Amino acid sequence: MSTNETNTPSAAAEIPQPAPTLTPEAIIEELRAIRAKIGEVTPLTPEQRRTLQDRGGRTSNPVLQASINVIGAMDSVSQAIGRQAAQVRQLQGEANRWTAVEDELRTMLKGVGGANLVRRQRVALIAAQGVGIGTQLARDPANAVLLPHVQEVRRLRRVARRRKPASTPEVPQS
Fold first, then answer.
1. What is the pTM of this model?
2. pLDDT tens figures, 48-79
3. Class of residue 64 by CB neighbours under 10 A (exposed 0-12, middle 13-18, buried 19+)
4. Are 44 and 60 in contact (CB under 8 A)?
5. If you write DSSP's letter for every residue of 13-74 in order, what string do you get?
């Protein structure tokens, strides 16, 4: 009988491998594919959104439930609106499930936005360090090639700091 075991898993199989990171372009492509599969995506103008919310988009759940119960209490009510109470409850359940999707997407957007802000800050810090080092090196005539670049950064910074003149309000003529 052999003491060697042949069924031991390899060391590589035991170490969990991280999922590959998607590129921004690949994520955009996947998001567009998901959007195409959703079907009902309705972009609204701010005015349209306000109008819909004012018409009852913020009705509390107890009021909705009681209203649906009115529909189910008599056939004449459901016939008048053209829907059964069960159909309206199904619509409400669907809206609730899509609210969870909306919350998840909002959370993802905030996370991506935060990560991008950190990236921009990191790039700005590295660039500022590069300009600082370049400024120091440009003092030496042997590094004269850096001088126009450093001067351009200074010029662009001055332009960015300039305040636009305040427009003078027009005086009505009598």
1. 0.64
2. 988 888 887 678 889 889 999 999 999 999 99
3. middle
4. no
5. HHSPPPPPPPPHHHHHHHHHHHHHHH-------HHHHHHHIIIIIT--HHHHHHHHHHHHH-
